[in-house]
Amino acid sequence: MELDRYDRQILEILQTDGRISNQELADRIGLSPSPCLRRVRALEEAGLIVGYRALLDAKALGLSLTALIQISMDQHTPERFATFETAVAEIPEVMECLLITGQAADYQLKVAVKDLDAYQELLLKRITGIPGVSGVHSSFVLRRVVDKTAFAVGAAG
To answer: H-type helices in 46-156, by residue range?
Structure first.
């Protein structure tokens, strides 16, 4: 899909305010409501907009510890990776799972837990028990310096 300036403006605004009304969105980008809504629907149908969600405050929910876990696998086979990915997708504390390269590890997980005790429980009873996990290296987040959810739409394409 070829994006014009209106599409890019719609994407930028919706990333920061997904609850904006169509009328307000149309006003902000300089279109009437009908064509604005058609563009939003087209962006959704094209798969550029994949959903709308609320962003929650982890600390307010009692999840004060964020850890990055690098996972090494014993075998590099599609079956082993699929088993790991299926298992890790079912762990609610896992916020992100990335298959990575350029490191000694194969995966990087971002997890959010209550405290070190909860982290130990997660690591020892759930993550290291996944078939194929042969190594684990943990780092703890001290402070979030940049924490974005919005892509730089104007820089794309």
So the answer is: 78-89, 116-122
Average pLDDT over residues 88-95: 98
Domain 59-140 adopts which CATH fold?
Alpha-Beta Plaits (3.30.70)
- pLDDT attached to residue 30: 97
**Right CATH number for 5-45 from 1.10.10.10, 3.40.50.2300, 1.10.150.240, 2.60.120.200?**
1.10.10.10
Residue 151 vs residues 31, 36, 41, 83: alpha-carbon distances, Å = 23, 21, 19, 30
The pLDDT, as a whole number, for residue 157 is: 56
CA distance 50 to 82: 23
Determine if the pTM surpasses 0.85: yes
The H-or-E segment that residue 25 falls in is helix 22-29
Q: Which two tokens stand for residue 119?
A: 């982290």
Q: Domains of the chain: which residue ranges?
A: 5-45, 59-140
Query: CA 154, CA 143: separation in Å to the nearest integer?
Result: 28
pLDDT tens digit sequence for 42-67: 999 999 999 999 999 999 999 999 99
